[in-house]
Amino acid sequence: MTLHHSIGRDPLEALIKGETLPDLLMARLLDPxxxxxxxxxxxxxxxxxxxxxxxxxxxxxxxxTNICRNGCLYCGIRAGNNSVSRYCLDQxxxxxxxREAYGLGFRTIxxxxxxxxxTDPMVADIVDQITSTLPGCAVTLSLGERPHKVYExxxxxxxxxxxxRHETASHYHYSSLHPTGMTLLTRLKCLESLRSxxxxxxxxxxxxxxxxxxxxxxxxxxxxxxxxxxMVGIGPFIPHPATPLxxxxxxxxxxxxxxxSIIRLMLPSxxxxxxxxxxxxxxxxxxxxxxxxxxxxxPNISPARVRADYALYSxxxxxxxxxxxxxxxxxxxxxxxxxxxxxxRGDFKPHAPQSFTHQS
Length: 360
Ligand code: 5AD
What we know:
single chain, alpha/beta, six-stranded parallel β-sheet, 40% helix, globular, binds 5'-deoxyadenosine
């Protein structure tokens, strides 16, 4: 679509048709003057129901360590934060959590943690143990930037998915959020590496991180359209007081919801969580995320005693329906919007564009 043709067009109609929108129209999708939040969410929600059905996939989130070598300026578990009490679960503790989650019905375990390379071989062992002793259980890893060889070792051990948010697709903005030495280029190389190994790859960004402007978000959307991740995690930035960016305001829930909807319409088959950050900022954040086009929730399955120590931002929701033991609450919550828990593995399934019809 040329710029000339795009002026005066309805950006939502164009996105629904699967057109590649120029930045001008993408920007309008983010602007309530042009497209109401309700219209956008309705289109995304209709599409989600048509493709993914009524069920919302659950993944058990296990925070294996808060030890991290990195100093991301926004993150509460950054190496420079001396006020954190550091922990690293051992193999036995991790397997106990996995077995318990499996018993509750979970069929995906997401092992997330800081960048703590000495645990690399242990992670491989655990992945192998999960996939060989818990039939039908998928393992997703979210352990940051690692050499290709390490990603390969984990893949061979049986991990099938990897979450590594790109955080922002603007090189300049990326550098402003990270310490010297961390670059967007390295992050993108990791994502390519993961893809080449056959992982289902998840990426995504924080919304409203300090210094983010409309151009950054448009770059994010262009990157996501071109990379076509199998999973996309988007949550609002939430300041953590013990970080260099702790005095900045939190990101906008409404913009986060708009972005979920836009990305759902761009990538109908993607698995998109209603993130904990969204549930932390708004009491009904999880439900609103689902109504905006998310199809996944990730209850916390970490041992209760370490959950507070894994504070990437302040006030993290990790109780009630955000926790494994609150599955009944989660089911009730989803029921309010006519949805239910789906305990299946929920691997990425590509859908042919013609396999659904969309009513706008
Ligand atoms: N606010 C919101 N999200 C954060 N993350 C890290 N710190 C924060 C924060 N202060 C997100 C990053 C990271 C994911 C694990 O958590 O996007 O990739």
